[in-house]
From TrEMBL:
One of its GO terms (cellular component) is vacuolar membrane. It comes from Methylomicrobium album BG8. This is Vacuolar membrane protease. Residues 83-272 form the Peptidase M28 domain. The chain crosses the membrane at residues 309-327, 339-360, 380-399, 411-430, 450-480, 492-508.
């Protein structure tokens, strides 16, 4: 279920060609292309060239986009963006279907998967549509810019482009890995009509309504689809999430992108575009919202989120019936103590399993200290399955050790009650995930209800079938959760594995009797084999490079310079800059800028850099407001600057390139800084509007250029192939040169 199908060869003209799409990916993801870089401009040029070659006229939306963020202090990100759009006319020329992917990359990532694969697929789908008969509705292809900076391109589209009002459906394609199935994990609400269309049209539909809860409520992530949804555009969000160790790193390159995943993404994009473009988008369809999940044989199941409480109510009735029957039997035997002991036994098992897995996880981090340098190990999947084996063996041994105190029916009733309580919580907190506990709870409640009337092989057969159904439901979701939440969430997932083992304990009893301790020994052996394999993959190599970080920071005011790093300790390459024992600092000149919890710091000889040119264009007092216009030009072609001032928060409004980027509100969150992307060699003009009694006397500029070339010395060793810049976020520049200067105004 979780492996993309092999590529199907179809007639060339009208079928999606993964080979042609991969050729586009190689051009798009030849090198990192963040906003403001020369490579970014080259990718935009390539897209325009390819669109013209296909016979389309590209619409360019070139503007300045901005957004305000909180952490909890507020800051503003602004960027010069260049959205590229293509409109494929339909027969009606009324409603439109939006197909979206972003063409900018993260700072140090070539962006083959994120999001070059989607952009390449969009070009390939455009080629096919050019040779096909017209569809009913228009199709708008949005190659959005500056997604990695905070969804700025999509914000500019929905707020300012006239085509946005025509969009009725949005299909957004993303990636958080480089392989695996194309997962539909988010929809707008209500979604009944959308999900039914998806189930009908998609190539090998694969979806989980529980994954949205992980993505939004646990990981707090957003994509361009968040902007479309907030703008009132219905739609769906897609991504592939396996291979997450490559995400936002140099490893997100064309060679590591699974071409089967690329093909599956492209075929789905084509099918869904055709389907929705030929659908009557004015028909409201069925009301309500649906949850959805897959089973291993590929079937997509839909269920009404409005009806999940009847499912839980059915489970409650079955469990209540079971409890009454057990209570009567217990009363006859006068063994009340055993009745109340069973929940304690179950909770003890879960607690011990959690401790075992926590110790297992902590032990791995202790033995393999290099894992601290990684968001998660390259061999994390080996550890996940090894932990599953260890958990299963541990549970069986614990169950056998506690068997003398376990009354099987009373124990099962206790497990069902606790499982049901978890299901009610899940239904309230994560409605889309109610299937994860509701269906397994229902299956085992049915099994135990039959068990009140059957004995021997009858109950064994029913319990076995229901237990198999439970694992068919639970196992794929746990695997997806591992890839969504990462290696460090495995101890929590193993507690769920243990709870599921307890839930299906009726089916395990015959196995315990037949195999005894051989069964847990088998799982321990499998776990050990996986650990041996993981050990062989534990070291760093060109295929599994070590991430590290180094930043040169020069403060022109004090003429002091420092090497900075976010790593726990220097490695062989960064040691030439940081030394063997750098200072560990949490405060200082640049520490506030990078917002790291701790930094490795070493003083170094300053290299004088050309500071930005800053001039006052105009300052005036008008209508009880003080207006200040400042022009800034980088002399280093730096793509990114940050502006700060002691009284920046007093500003009522702030403009950049004549666009309003900040309006003081009643949020109470002070404005800390302004971050401006895409500066380059062009001048930027900022306008500050302050109260009449306020005047901006000083401006602090931090200028960032993300390469070390301008300070490189011949005697320094170049970065070895076994290392890469660590995963970079906008507030954590890597392999960068930072300049800080104060300007009196």
């Amino acid at each position: 279920m979780l492996t993309p199908p092999d590529i199907v060869q179809e007639p060339e003209a009208f079928a999606y060609s993964a080979e042609r799409a991969l050729s586009h990916v190689r051009h798009i993801a030849a090198e990192p292309h963040p906003v403001g870089s020369p490579a970014h401009a080259a990718v935009a040029g390539y897209l325009l060239e390819q669109i013209a070659a296909l016979g389309y006229r590209a619409e360019i939306q070139e503007t300045l986009a901005s957004a305000r963020f909180y952490r909890p202090e507020s800051f503003v990100k602004a960027a010069r963006i260049k959205n590229i759009l293509v409109r494929v006319a339909g027969k009606t020329h009324q409603d439109a279907v939006l197909i979206a992917g972003h063409y900018d990359s993260a700072e140090s990532a070539p962006g083959a998967a994120d999001d070059g694969a989607a952009v390449a697929s969009m070009l390939e789908v455009l080629r096919i549509l050019k040779q096909s008969a017209p569809l009913q509705n228009d199709l708008i292809f949005l190659f959005s810019d500056a997604e990695e900076l905070g969804l700025l391109g999509s914000r500019a589209f929905v707020e300012r482009h006239p085509w946005a009002k025509d969009c009725r459906i949005a299909l957004n394609f993303e990636a958080r890995g480089n392989k695996g199935m194309l997962l539909m994990f988010e929809t707008s609400e209500p979604n009944a009509r959308l999900v039914e269309h998806y189930a009908e049209a998609a190539v090998q539909p694969f979806a989980s309504s529980l994954m949205f809860s992980f993505y939004k409520k646990l990981l707090h992530n957003d994509t361009d689809f968040s902007v479309f949804r907030e703008a009132g555009i219905s739609g769906m969000n897609f991504a592939f999430i396996e291979g997450g160790t490559d995400y936002h790193t140099r490893l997100d390159n064309p060679e590591r992108l699974d071409v089967r995943t690329l093909a599956l993404q492209g075929r789905n994009m084509l099918q869904l575009a055709r389907h929705f473009a030929d659908a009557d988008l004015s028909v409201p369809g069925r009301e309500g919202s649906l949850g959805y999940f897959n089973l291993p044989f590929g079937k997509l199941f839909l269920f009404s989120l409005d009806d999940h409480f009847p499912l839980l109510a059915t489970v409650v009735l079955l469990v209540s019936f079971l409890l009454l029957a057990i209570a009567e039997a217990v009363h006859r035997r006068r063994r009340i103590g055993h009745y109340f002991l069973q929940p304690g036994i179950f909770l003890l098992q879960i607690g011990l399993i959690a401790l075992i897995n926590y110790a297992f996880h902590a032990g791995l981090m202790q033995v393999y200290g290099n894992y601290r340098r990684l968001p998660e190990p390259y061999n994390a999947e080996c550890y996940f399955f090894a932990a599953c084996g260890l958990t299963t063996a541990s549970f069986m041994l614990l169950h056998a050790g506690l068997r003398r105190w376990i009354e099987l029916r009373e124990y099962a009733a206790a497990v069902l009650c606790i499982w049901l309580a978890a299901g009610i919580y899940l239904a309230l907190a994560f409605p889309g995930g109610v299937f994860f506990t509701g269906v397994p709870g229902f299956m085992m409640a049915v099994a135990w209800t039959f068990g009140l009337f059957l004995t021997g092989m009858g109950i064994t057969l029913i319990a076995g079938l229901c237990s198999a159904a439970v694992w068919i439901m639970v196992a794929p979701t746990l695997y997806l959760a591992h890839h969504a939440l990462g290696f460090h969430a495995d101890p929590l997932l193993m507690a769920i594995v243990a709870a599921t083992l307890a839930l299906v304990s009726p089916a395990l009893e015959p196995l315990y009797h037949a195999f005894g301790r051989k069964l847990p020994a088998l799982f321990l052996a499998a776990s050990l084999i996986l650990l041996i394999r993981a050990d062989r993959l534990a070291g760093f190599s060109p295929d599994r490079p070590q991430p590290d970080s180094i930043v040169y920071a020069w403060d022109s005011a004090s003429n002091t310079a420092r090497w900075l790093s976010y790593d726990a300790e220097p490695d062989d390459w960064t040691r030439q800059f940081l030394g063997s024992k750098p200072e560990v600092s949490r405060t200082g000149i640049f520490e506030d800028f990078v917002h790291a919890e701790r930094l490795l710091v070493r003083e170094t000889a300053p290299v004088r850099l050309a500071a930005p040119d800053v001039s006052i264009a105009e300052e005036r007092l008008l209508k009880e407001k003080n207006y200040l216009d400042v022009r800034i030009r980088s002399r280093r072609d730096a793509p990114l600057i940050r502006l700060k001032s002691p009284n920046l928060d007093e500003a009522v409004q702030i403009y950049a390139d004549s666009q309003l980027i900040y309006q003081k509100d009643a949020s109470g969150s002070p404005l800390e800084f302004i971050e401006f992307h895409g500066l380059g060699s062009e001048e930027a003009e900022f306008g500050f509007v302050l109260p009449a009694d306020e005047r901006m006397k000083m401006l602090e500029i931090i200028e960032i250029r993300r390469d070390l070339d301008e300070i490189w010395q011949k005697n320094w060793k170049t970065r070895p192939e076994s290392t890469i810049p660590r995963r970079a976020w906008s507030s954590l520049p890597v392999d960068a040169v930072i300049l800080r200067r104060f300007y009196p105004l």
